[in-house]
Specification:
448 residues, alpha/beta, 23% strand
Length: 448
Amino acid sequence: MQERFDLVLKGGTVMMAAGRISTDIGVIAGRIAHIGDIPASAGDQVFDATGLHILPGVIDSQVHFREPGNEHKEDLATGTAGAAAGGVTTIFEMPNTKPSTTSAEALADKLARAKGRAWVDHAFFMGATPENAAEMASLETLPGCAGVKIFMGSSTGSLLVEAEEHIRAVLSHGHRVVSIHAEDEARMRERFKLVEGGAHPRMHPVWRDVETAVLATSRIIRLARETGRKVHVLHITTGDEAELLAAAKDVATMEVTPQHLTLSAPEAYDRLGTLAQMNPPIREEHHRLALWRAVSEGVADVLGSDHAPHTLEEKSKQYPATPSGMTGVQTLVPVMLDHVNAGRLTLERFVDLSAHGPQRVFSLAGKGRIARGWDADFTIVDLKAKRTITNAWIKSRAAWTPYDGMQVTGWPVATVVRGNIVMRDDELLGGAIGEPARFLDAIVATGK
């Protein structure tokens, strides 16, 4: 054992891949150097984790931080500050910015913007278009690229790959997993007349109905098998899709969000109005319960927040002239810890969905588990803490959460990124030290 450690975490319950262990962790140069008994005197910095649980750093693999182009809603500094405040150590940001992230130049611009401003580690998705499909094999392996994203249905921004020939072309170029927003654009256009001219937000899941989601998810599974390309289907909202994906584990993985596990229609729309509006929609209670079955049965692979902020002014317009999306990166951990305390999932399953799962699906290098030699990323939580989520706590420039006033049991008390304590007891510490994440499949493809 090394005599000196940069950081020692003492006395916590550590969530290892093999199970819960009461032990100490020693960190040197941003990596886990020792797991076992360590005297406090051996640490240049010592964190007393007595009574706390030390989780692998939570990875939020679906956020929208709006920079460039819509910084009035969010930017990379405020978005990653929210991540750090909420116990998230790594984020993957989506490409539907202005301009969209569809080229090497756009990716380089985002990486440059994040340097010295991002509080947590990060990567950026490359957005697929009908025009750049043939370039995807080279674009997806660029440093800092989290992979490829296809919007099969329109949402915020202009990215859309609707025609089957164009989807097939994207899947046919490259090898990394492709993340999918699965809604059928043709059916949504046909059904828009149900809300055109104004409606109550509870019509959102009527317009963008179950069949809209099922058609798209069925299609992407078929095209994935035809092309031999793995896909990761984001923010699943229906029990029907969960059944499809349970039978498609050869080609597809599945993401769920805290929103779809926590909120249900029509109550959420009646209480929150357009603040509950997101794509795909919050659906009826029986779909929410079906998603929990997918979690308990191991069908769901990843938990992502789909953090997608808009201002309250924008949300105050009459539906459907209101944007879809809500904040979520900062509330992911406390909302899900409350579900843990309520007995809906184990802490081990939460760790699998929020750390091990993203690492497996995206071939993330050195992150997603507590093991010697891996990055010293930790989400340290107090499972007994009783707190109330409030808008005032939210770091997002949008400054609101659909969970305002929600009492929870379980709270992130510290966020550690590569051995740096960037949040402790709700206070951001140090500076914005986030760096680009690395991916094993990209490293193998490029040799870098």
